[in-house]
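Notebook, bench 3.
Goal today: get a predicted structure for AraC-like DNA-binding protein from Anseongella ginsenosidimutans so we can plan the truncation constructs. The sequence was checked against the plasmid map this morning, with no discrepancies at the termini. Length recorded as 139 residues. Pasting the sequence as submitted so the record is complete.
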Amino acid sequence: MNFYQTEIGRIKHICYSNDKQIKTVIAARTFINNNFEKDLKLDLLSHLLFTSKFHLLRLFKKYYGLTPKQYLTIKRLEESKKYLKEGMPVSDTCYRVGFETPSSFSTLFRNKTGLSPIEFQKKQFSQSRSKPDSGPCDH
């Protein structure tokens, strides 16, 4: 083993010394990604992963730089953008991604994107119409 491989191993051991922690936070993130539309609480995640909610919160923040709730909110907003681009009504999008009320969804969406969901949707439609057709030209 050369010096660089030794150093990489040493650093990896320091940063990722506990595989169980890594598996726990990956499992938490995976569960959030697969169930973002549901009413997810820290208590539920910690129960499913057999760990305390405070420990899970610290681990998640340590490895991802966000709390599980912050991650969930970002995930829901990203998914909502997909539905809005497809033309789904704002209220349907709101409930589909797990927000409780269209008004709280709209406020959060505007705070994070700078646009209301309707403005975002209109912008997406206007951009898609302004793009030229990429099909073959018939001359």
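The chain has one domain: 18-130. Residues 68-85 form the longest helix (18 residues).
Flagging this for group meeting.
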